[in-house]
Amino acid sequence: MKFNEVGNRLYTGETSVDFAGKRNLWYFMSVVIIAIAAFGLFGRGLNLGIEFEGGAKFNVPSTTSVEEARNIVKNAGVETSVIIAVGNERLEIQTPPLEQEAIDIFIDKIAVDFKLDPATITTQAVGPSWGADITRQALIGLGVFLLLVILFLTIYFEIRMASAAIVALLHDLLITIGVYAITGFEVTPATVIGVLTILGYSLYDTVVVFDKVKENTRGILAQSRLNYREAANLALNQTLIRSINTSIVALLPVAAILIVGVGILQAGTLKDLALALFVGIAAGTYSSIFIATPFLVQLKERQPEIQALMRRVHARRSNAGVDGPEAMKVSGNPNLANQVLQAGPRTQPKRFTRSKRKKS
Amino acid sequence: MSAANRARPARLLVLFLIAAVATSLWTYWPGQSTEARLGLDLRGGTQVILTPELAPGAEGTLTQDQINQTVEIIRQRVNGFGVAEAEVTVQGSGANSAIVVTVPGVNPEGITNLLKQTARLDFRAVLAAGTGLEFPAPTPSPSGTESPSPQPTPAPQPSQLPVQAATSEEIFDQYLSLNCLTPGLLQGGRSDDPTKYMVTCSKDGFEKFLLAPAFITGDQVSDSQATLPQQGAGGWMVTLDFDSLGATKLSEASIALSKLPSPQNRFGIVLDGLVVSAPFFSEPILGGKAQIEGSFKADEAKQLSQVLRYGALPVTLTIAESTSISPTLGQDQLSAGLLAGAIGLGLVIIYLIIYYRALGFVAVFSLIVAAGFLWLLIIALGRSIGFTLTLAGIAGAIVAIGITADSFVVYFERIRDEIRDGKTLRVATELAWVRARRTLLAADFVSLLAAVVLYALSVGSVRGFAFTLGLTTLIDVLVAFWFTHPLVTYFGRTKLAESGGMLTGVSRKRLTAGSPILNESGKQ
Fold first, then answer.
1. Which end of chain B lies in a sparser environment, N or C, as judged by fewer CB atoms within 10 Å?
2. Domain co-membership, A297 together with A263
3. Chain B within 8 Å of A236 (Cβ-Cβ)?
4. pTM for the whole structure
5. Distance (Å) from the C-alpha of residue A123 to the closest C-alpha of chain B?
């Protein structure tokens, strides 16, 4: 079957994936992933860059080998350092925090040994408490943002949708941070930026899905053909193609950043950012489908009126001897909102366009 | 169909055109720089981030006033350093603020030491004063010049004289040869030992002074306010309150100095090595309360009182981060960022055209228009509010390509849904817009919220990113409402689209293929 045909059948419900019903399976998968992430986080911890821990970083345009560079650094009086070759033409030297005077002396010394102009050496020195400041500010920002988002989603949707969206968001953040802990990728301010973007993206995705759920479940209590789970699941299936498309469209530019970041610059802002985004957007797409809506359904099904609806739908189906959401297949109109509104024959006179009215 | 009648694509497009022309004019108004302001990581240079703290021993909390004063002091120092294009900005507020200093060049010698020096505030008796040029000024009287240790103040003991720079005669020679127009002289930040004689200039460079050791130090000022006296004569004035030690010293100094002829009845208020004000004592001041009168304008009086309050709680600066990037690396990063943007845009365009065909071209136009808007605004905002484009900002813009394209996907998928429901294309574009519009606004609002919160609460590169994110979100809304939607409406009226051919991207045949239900409802 072609991709567009799948899309068409998903829209009507002829082809349907039971996202909402198999929630325990998705939860289990996520719990396993998060457990691994947490294990990495508390076991290995994050590999924090000098921006968080304090220290100095020197980028030297030189083809000298790492071993030789280590000797040069030792000769310049810095005992502990991390030296990484960035591509073939650059070396990155990380040292513990140094005083500004010490940095100037260090640069002058290694410039002589590397046979370079000191002005070509790129430096970055960070005081030990600055990273803590940045982290604290970022966490405060995150907290304020989450509170405002919960408020907004509660007003725009309802409290249950807001909670489900936040659960999905935390899920994405945990997985992304966990991937960093397990792989040992360095966490830099660019990584933090990437993670913060995921925040926005994950919510964007969830809002789009929930908007469809909201539309499909409007007036749901006034009928007894479809229960909440089925209506929500239909919404998910109907937006599935869109979810896949938006994810591809969002991942393409990120892939471009990743290609250029890894292929040309080898390190730095672009690579760090793209990595975090890649992981986060993938997790965000997954969670908006497999976590947010199933969790929402679970919350909704605790409500007495939704439970009553489930019983009504069940009773109706056992009387008719059918199983499953047959109603819309019969009517051929998959849009529940339209169906409820247009339950009877049209009694109002039809309005014609002006030109047609003149003719008649 | 009422929804279709309500849509007035021509009006919207005209609105959009006006917005586009206005933005272009704003950006390319003749006689202004039309280059984007590039951040340090894209053009090379040195950036030092300083975190201000109260000096050890001082009590209380850092106020915004003091931060502003500190920024003022640093600006004076950096400008005096003689580098072009240096800039000093403050991020965050109150106790969390950070002062960001950016100067061109890699690791300029001495810049960091110059920056982190704590600025002092002292009151010193004037021994001689004159125009800020390099010959004996006519004003000082011979008696004042010959005996630079008159009776005022705790008379300086020989031991208090400068150790290295010697006798009062030597200092006087320095005074005579001082030229306040010498480059770099007005930068402040030089060591000023309150126990030594001092030769310096006024902040504006018009006057030079030979000053005695400090008789009052800044921490002895307990408060200062700019006030407008009720009687209204004489304009604004600055009141001063001293603590008990300061009050004693003030009365001693004022008794001694007020008897002397000008300029020895004057005293210099010295901030960061430069004289900000040099009033004279008109009478002895007892009781620790003083006021400086003069022909102050409101803002001058406020500035002076701010300086005086600053002295009570001097701010020490810690270098939180210093970064130097060579121009070559900056250039490399810039071209890599632009290349990534071009590749990203190219990939998204290819995907949109393959998947949405003719409709995809509308999306591609919209994307290009959005990118153009972003570029114009980056230039214009760089000029007007100092927005700088950093690598993180470029990355934010590239990521925004995807998010902007997402809004088109949301809209187009809704159009397809409506067509599947059996609507004609013309009706479908409007019905879908009504529904997609709400979704877009909700989703974009969340993005904007993230951008605003991050911008307000974070420091460093996160801010640049948040700004770009917020900007692109607003552009996304503008383009979707005033450009994409009317264009799609027009597209729905073309013969090509109404033909429902396979290349339109909205072909009913394709959108009902493989589904018996849709084929059925399509015939209704």
1. C
2. yes
3. no
4. 0.71
5. 5
